[in-house]
Amino acid sequence: MVRNIFGAAAVKTYKCPGCMQDIRPGVAHVVAWPADGYGEGADRRHWHTGCWRARDRRTPGVERSRNAPRYG
Length: 72
What we know:
This protein is mostly beta strands.
């Protein structure tokens, strides 16, 4: 299931799983969760709209610490 959230309705900060960047309050975005009935509220993911549209063309985001090597 996918739902668009308008900027005025976005009141919290979320982390986008597509780019691992914050979605700040007031920014329109997309919320997605499993449609099979097995998902719970904790299974919802908030995505930037552009990241959601590009999800099939992107590799999974890898979260690294600041001191981690960039490649390798």
